[in-house]
Amino acid sequence: MHELTRRPVLQLAGLTRTYRQGNRTVQVLAGASADLYAGEAVALVGPSGAGKSTLLHIAGLLETPDSGRVIVDGRDCSAMSDEERTRIRRTTMGFVYQFHQLLPEFSAIENVVIPQMIRGCSRRQAEARGRELLAAVGLGHRLDHRPAELSGGEQQRTAICRALANSPKILLADEPTGNLDPATAEQVFSELIELVVRTGVAALIATHNMELAARMHRVLRLEGGVLVEVAPGTVG
Ligand code: ADP
Fold first, then answer.
1. Ligand 1 contact, 98 CB (< 6 A)
2. d(CA 19, CA 9)
3. Within a 10 A sphere around the Cβ of 70, how many other Cβ atoms?
4. What is the CA radius of gyration of the chain?
5. Whose CA is nearest to atom 26 of ligand 1?
6. Strand-pair partners of 170
């Protein structure tokens, strides 16, 4: 698509958020803005407590900002009802957390198939997509293993595939490799970036690992409650 007509998939516009902690207020977001485009992996960095999780929760329509707007695929979600926000979240977003949260009684492929079947996909189609996604992250030979039979890296790969199962437009990840050893984290990150490019999802990935952040297409740093674009080459 022509650069000039390219529209962001996710727009965060002037987000503010204040929390009360005892008798003081903490302004976590003070006008955070960013545009995310299809097929790009964007790192969200900043020290612990900077507001990364808060920003991801607001972007994921799980929390509302005090002011500012979240625009998903051109639709302003600010004034939507809870039902509408839930529908937008379910149909356009995938989430990955630090801990995989896979269903322990189900195999890797079932964990990727179930969300698709809940959305009305046939088992055949869901399995085909599940196999394709898991094979793309090198888990073609682990389809029938339950989470407890997978390594930490394999569990997170499966969680990433599950998040992408319903072809979301937006992927939000909060420290997805925070629980992995450095070598595994790096490998899972590479695969995640490849999947972002391959599936065309727009990904916002919080990490405090600057070396991993530097590998992504863009880096946004939360500083004093606003988002600052940093050249990936200058972090790490
Ligand atoms: P990060 O993910 O960058 O570590 P968070 O978004 O988790 O940062 O937290 C940012 C700040 O907001 C912290 O000071 C945290 O204590 C505060 N905070 C987050 N959620 C709440 C809440 N529900 N109530 C009060 N304070 C909160």
1. no
2. 28
3. 22
4. 18
5. 19
6. 93, 202
